[in-house]
Amino acid sequence: MFQASLVAEHRNPSLRFFADRLRRAGKPHKVIITAAARKLVTIANALCKSRQKWTATAP
Questions:
Q1: What is the pTM of this model?
Q2: Contact 23, 32 (CB under 8 A)
Q3: pLDDT tens digits, 24-47
Q4: Max Cα distance, the chain (Å)
Q5: With the CA atoms of 46, 16, 7 and 36 taken in that order, what torsion angle do they form, in degrees rounded to the nearest 10?
Q6: In this structure, are residues 10 and 54 in contact, taking their beta carbons and an 8 Å threshold?
């Protein structure tokens, strides 16, 4: 999940916005990556539960 969150932080607009917000709040890099990984797990769980596909939306 660490590697996936690193990529998602740069490529996914909603996770990029989330990571930038944490960065502006002064959070350390590892905290930002861990939070992004947790958010990815939550998103994946919700998508599996609702049997939907991912659609990228603006924040």
A1: 0.78
A2: yes
A3: 999 999 999 999 999 989 988 988
A4: 36
A5: -50
A6: no
